[in-house]
């Protein structure tokens, strides 16, 4: 299911913010402070590091002409709102575009678009430890990185899993499952449905005389 730009920002607003912001935070009005504050509002995280923020801001400034001016306008719009949710939900035009431009590297950890088909693309690394796609789920799913244990850590049975029926040697690198199974012939109704000949599996079964099958 796809999500449009506005729905994405509204979903960000549902993430509980670590702190609420106020206009007094930016007494200096410096661009870097504005970027950090806007980033906190967008991500709902108060523990973003200055180093990652500076790198992301620098990359976006290089790639998007007029980014500093757009950032200032976005900051003004957000801090003038009565709440974080109201501020993000009300963004339109350039403010909405700028907010999404800022959100992407914070969540994905890079700017640009990486490609697996060509040797060089326009993607550039921004941050790993501050990447919010991992930070929001780190209590459940560890960030993909180096192995979380010593050599062979993956052999241990996960907590709460009964692996008593595993064949001997299943946790060794040399283990190969025995080919004791056979591939079943495909159901003609499912094959016809998958090929696009029918709009539903029920229609395929009815047409092929298999309406009674489940």
Secondary-structure class: mainly alpha
Mean pLDDT: 81
Order of SSEs: HHHHHHEEHHH
Query: Termini, distance in Å?
Result: 27 Å
Residue share in helix: 40-55%
Strand percentage lies at under 5%
Largest sheet at a glance? Answer: 2 strands, antiparallel
Give me the Rg, rounded: 25 Å
List the uncertain runs.
18-31
- Overall 3D shape: extended
Protein name: Sorbitol dehydrogenase
InterPro entries: FAD-SLDH_ssu
Mind sketching the topology for me?
Layout: H1 5-13, H2 31-43, H3 50-63, H4 67-79, H5 84-89, H6 93-108, E1 110-111, E2 124-125, H7 132-135, H8 188-194, H9 201-207
Antiparallel strand pairs: 1-2
Helix pairs in contact: 2-3, 2-4, 2-6, 4-6, 8-9
Organism: Pseudomonas endophytica
Protein name: Sorbitol dehydrogenase
Write up what this structure looks like.
- The protein is mostly helical and 214 residues long.
- The chain has a two-stranded antiparallel ribbon with strand order 1-2.
- It has helices at residues 5-13, 31-43, 50-63, 67-79, 84-89, 93-108, 132-135, 188-194, 201-207; strands at 110-111, 124-125.
- It folds into two domains: 5-117, no CATH class; 177-214, no CATH class.
- The protein has nine helices and two strands, in the order H-H-H-H-H-H-E-E-H-H-H.
Features:
single chain, 2 domains, extended, two-stranded antiparallel sheet, Sorbitol dehydrogenase, about 210 residues, mainly alpha, 2 strands
Short structural summary:
This protein is mainly alpha-helical and about 210 residues long.
């Amino acid at each position: 299911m796809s999500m449009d730009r506005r729905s994405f920002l509204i979903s960000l607003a549902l993430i509980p913010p670590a702190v609420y912001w106020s206009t007094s935070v930016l007494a200096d009005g410096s661009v870097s402070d504005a970027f950090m504050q806007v980033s906190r509002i967008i991500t709902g995280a108060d523990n973003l590091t200055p180093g990652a923020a500076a790198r992301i801001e620098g990359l976006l400034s290089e790639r998007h002409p007029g980014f500093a001016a757009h950032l200032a306008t976005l900051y003004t719009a957000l801090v003038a709102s009565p709440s974080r949710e109201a501020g993000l939900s009300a963004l339109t035009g350039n403010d909405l575009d700028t907010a999404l431009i800022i959100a992407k590297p914070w969540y994905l950890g890079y700017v640009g678009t990486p490609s697996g088909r060509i040797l060089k693309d326009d993607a550039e690394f921004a941050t790993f430890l501050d990447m919010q796609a991992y930070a929001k789920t780190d209590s459940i799913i560890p960030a993909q990185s180096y192995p979380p244990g010593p050599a062979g850590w993956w052999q241990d049975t996960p907590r709460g899993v009964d692996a008593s029926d595993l064949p001997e040697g299943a946790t060794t690198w040399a283990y190969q499952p025995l080919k004791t199974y056979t591939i079943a012939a495909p159901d003609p109704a499912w094959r016809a449905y998958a090929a696009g000949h029918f709009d539903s599996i029920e229609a395929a079964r009815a047409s092929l005389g298999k309406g009674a099958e489940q």
